[in-house]
């Protein structure tokens, strides 16, 4: 039922857009038909948004395609390990490889789903979580650059900053989940 | 490489800043010249990144990745002014209008600063939250990271660059066609413009955008596979248009103006829809700025500085509008011009930054044209005053896209945004000064004839020194048609409504992407679409990890290779080695 509502919404949006665009291209535009097309497209948009909200309500955090709480926990744990390794002066080339694996295997799959997450969390909540998340990511990128430039001290500092931001992101997400409960 | 661990990490250094300033000044002069000669300027970031890499890493042997990021931010921040100047200001000279060059330079500088102060607060929104791809920014980051990225990635970057260079060379030599006319092969009429542009830079941008770029392709399909056949089959084309001219009529009189309207409506609705996130992002910048400790590194430019800078820039635009308009422009009119012009400038800056972020293609000239049209309407056809805002908008929007692209590069290499913002703001005044000085140097000749344009001696004699100023010529003809009352206002309004509806959909940026597709010729959109589809196919067949590791450096190489070859080719034309015909 939800799927069919989404499909209907998408179809109405597409049909409405085509009607509005074709009538708008005429010299002068067919204003009445353009208005009808726009109304149909807006109805389609409302249906799609409605079905997405319903899907969000029926999908629990752990069964969603991205379990953000678990994901953030993994990043924080790994960063904790990296910082410990850095205290032991593990070779910088090895540090670069481990940072790279965190970026590609843990962070990348989630950042590819930010559109889905912004719909699921709501635009404001998404911003609260992903603003510090992106700062953490940028500091992790800086740590990688420091490894490539052979600068151990700055790498350690960047890893510590990244950890702080990901923890902040986790706290923000926790607040959202608490409010939902 | 000899970065010692006890020294601070090299980022904002004297060497990097000096090299960036020198390189930026040289590129501004060269690109202003190429803008007047060829009608387009070139991407400065890639060139600056490569030259910076050679200078900082190989000559000084102590450069860091983020230091080179600062260097290329400065160089491209200076040279980007050349596009804004060479596309607009020469139109005034070609029209025989006299104006005070110093006042016009101040207006261009005000535009340059205003563009930056408008776009800097949106960094979090566009890069951290919307996660726009900025294909050229990604390509520059790949260059900057190449020393530490390993042999395989460096090889792929090199292969992509070489393939793209060869493709451009073979296209210029006529060995391979510039477009594949697939429409002809399957029997589609010419007016449906179904060809794929063989620009590997374009395909590379599509490869980096992937599924997110599909609405752009859908916009092109809507324009050329739905609207065009409907217009022909329902006899909407005037009878005096020949069959060869149908395609041009559909593009120029239907799709392009409606595309501009969709872009504008889409951008306005996009801002409204993302307002909660924007407020949250800007709020976090303000909070972070207020709570910053003594030993903490500042991540973003202080909001107070941004606000102060924006107000000073608007006041400067107001003063220039009044001074240049003279008695024919009253104080309330000058105020209206500066306020409306600044609002339009902000909107155009957001549109251009979004378009560049999503597709790497910028509708710069179309938005400057709207600025001029708007100002002509507001001032009762005062050409000079309208052009002040036109120049300011063109310079500002160039700054917006360049700043955001460099900040994306900075994000990927771990640069500190505030430092990038600070250096770009510090040099934003240089580009307009050098660009305008270069233009006047080329305009004034010893015999008093124009130095460029169709009436210049070199162009009349058709010598290699002819600077035809094609973009300015186009703007001149548009200003003249606006003055004669020929503005497709109904198309802009219809497009605006459609754009607003599209951007209210769940896919962010839908209106901007569809509008941009209608604004551009279809072969470009289709070429980009090939890249998007290839990305999706590879994601399905391989993995996102494989795509990130293998395809991203290759696609970055495709972008870099075409930029470098086009630059070399432009230099060969300018020096007269090749004819450019």
Short key terms for the protein model shown above:
heterodimer; A: 181 residues; mainly alpha; 7 helices; elongated; B: mainly alpha; two-stranded antiparallel sheet; 25 helices; 2 strands
Explain the overall architecture.
- The complex is a heterodimer of chains A (181) and B (581).
- With 181 residues, chain A is mainly α.
- Helices cover 86% and strands 0% of the residues of chain A.
- Chain A contains 7 helices and no strands.
- The model of chain A has no long low-confidence stretch (mean pLDDT 89).
- Chain B is mainly α.
- In chain B, helix 1 packs parallel to helix 19, helix 4 (81-94) runs antiparallel to helix 17 and helix 7 crosses helix 25.
- Chain B is globular and about 75 Å long.
- The model of chain B has no long low-confidence stretch (mean pLDDT 88).
- At the A-B interface, helix 1, helix 2, helix 4, helix 5 and helix 6 of A face helix 6, helix 11, helix 12, helix 13 and helix 17 of B.
């Amino acid at each position: 039922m939800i799927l069919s509502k989404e499909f209907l919404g998408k179809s109405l949006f597409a049909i409405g857009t085509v009607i509005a665009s074709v009538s708008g291209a005429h010299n002068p535009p067919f204003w009445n038909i353009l208005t009808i097309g726009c109304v149909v497209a807006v109805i389609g948009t409302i249906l799609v948004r409605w079905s997405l909200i319903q899907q969000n309500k029926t999908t629990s955090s752990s069964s969603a395609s991205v379990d953000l709480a678990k994901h953030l926990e993994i990043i924080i744990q790994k960063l904790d390990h990296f910082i410990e390794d850095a205290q032991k002066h593990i070779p910088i080339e090895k540090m670069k490889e481990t940072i790279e694996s965190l970026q590609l295997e843990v962070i990348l799959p989630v950042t590819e789903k930010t559109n889905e997450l912004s719909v699921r969390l709501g635009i404001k909540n998404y911003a609260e979580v992903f603003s510090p998340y992106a700062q953490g990511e940028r500091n992790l990128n800086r740590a990688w650059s420091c490894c490539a430039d052979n600068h151990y001290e700055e790498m350690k500092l960047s890893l510590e900053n990244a950890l702080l931001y990901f923890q902040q992101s986790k706290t923000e997400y926790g607040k959202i989940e608490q409010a939902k409960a | 490489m000899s970065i010692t661990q006890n020294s601070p990490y090299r980022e904002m250094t004297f060497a990097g800043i000096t090299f960036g300033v020198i390189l930026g000044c040289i590129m501004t002069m060269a690109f202003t010249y190429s803008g007047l000669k060829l009608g387009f300027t070139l991407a400065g970031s890639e060139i600056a990144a490569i030259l910076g890499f050679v200078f900082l890493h190989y000559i000084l042997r102590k450069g860091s990745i983020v230091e080179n990021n600062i260097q290329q931010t400065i160089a491209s921040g200076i040279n980007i002014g050349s596009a804004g100047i060479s596309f607009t200001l020469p139109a005034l000279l070609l029209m025989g209008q006299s104006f005070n060059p110093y006042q016009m330079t101040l207006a261009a500088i005000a535009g340059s600063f205003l563009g930056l102060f408008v776009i800097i607060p949106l960094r979090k929104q566009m890069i951290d939250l919307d996660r726009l791809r900025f294909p050229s920014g990604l390509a520059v980051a790949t260059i900057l990271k190449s020393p530490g990225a390993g042999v395989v990635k460096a090889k792929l970057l090199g292969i992509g660059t070489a393939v793209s260079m060869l493709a451009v060379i073979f296209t210029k030599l006529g060995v391979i066609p510039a477009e594949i006319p697939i429409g002809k092969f399957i029997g589609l009429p010419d007016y449906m413009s179904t060809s794929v542009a063989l620009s590997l830079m374009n395909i590379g941008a599509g490869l980096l955008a992937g599924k997110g770029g599909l609405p752009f392709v859908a916009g092109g399909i809507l324009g050329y596979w739905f609207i065009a056949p409907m217009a022909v089959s329902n006899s909407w084309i005037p009878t005096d248009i020949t069959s060869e001219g149908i395609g041009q009529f559909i593009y120029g009189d239907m799709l392009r103006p409606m595309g501009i309207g969709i872009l504008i409506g889409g951008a306005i609705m996009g801002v409204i829809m993302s307002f909660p996130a924007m407020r949250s992002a800007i709020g976090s910048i303000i909070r972070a700025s207020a709570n910053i400790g003594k030993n903490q590194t500042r991540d973003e430019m202080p909001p107070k500085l941004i606000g102060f800078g924006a107000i000073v820039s608007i006041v400067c635009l107001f003063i220039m509008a009044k001074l240049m308009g003279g008695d024919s422009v009253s104080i309330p009119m000058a105020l209206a011009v500066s306020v409306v012009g600044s609002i339009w400038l902000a909107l155009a800056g957001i549109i251009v930054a979004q378009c560049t972020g999503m597709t790497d293609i910028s509708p710069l000239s179309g938005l400057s044209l709207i600025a001029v049209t708007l100002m002509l309407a507001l001032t009762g056809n005062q050409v000079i005053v309208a052009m002040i805002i036109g120049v300011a908008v063109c310079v500002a929007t160039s700054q917006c896209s360049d700043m955001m692209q460099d900040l994306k590069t900075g994000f990927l290499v771990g640069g500190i945004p505030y430092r990038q913002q600070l250096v770009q703001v510090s040099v934003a005044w240089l580009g307009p000064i050098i660009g305008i000085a270069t233009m006047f140097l080329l305009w004034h000749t010893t015999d008093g004839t124009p130095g460029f344009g169709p009436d210049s001696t070199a162009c009349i004699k058709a010598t290699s020194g002819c600077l035809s100023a094609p973009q300015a010529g186009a703007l001149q003809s548009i200003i003249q048609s606006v003055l004669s009352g020929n503005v497709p206002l109904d198309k802009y309004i219809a497009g605006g409504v459609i754009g607003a509806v599209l951007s209210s959909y769940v896919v962010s940026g839908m209106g901007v992407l569809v509008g941009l597709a209608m604004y551009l010729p279809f072969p470009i959109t289709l070429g980009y679409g090939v890249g998007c589809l290839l990305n999706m196919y590879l994601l399905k067949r391989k993995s996102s990890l494989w795509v990130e590791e293998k395809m991203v450096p290759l696609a970055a190489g495709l972008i870099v290779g075409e930029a470098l070859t086009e630059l070399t080719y432009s230099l060969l034309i300018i020096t007269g080695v090749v004819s450019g015909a």
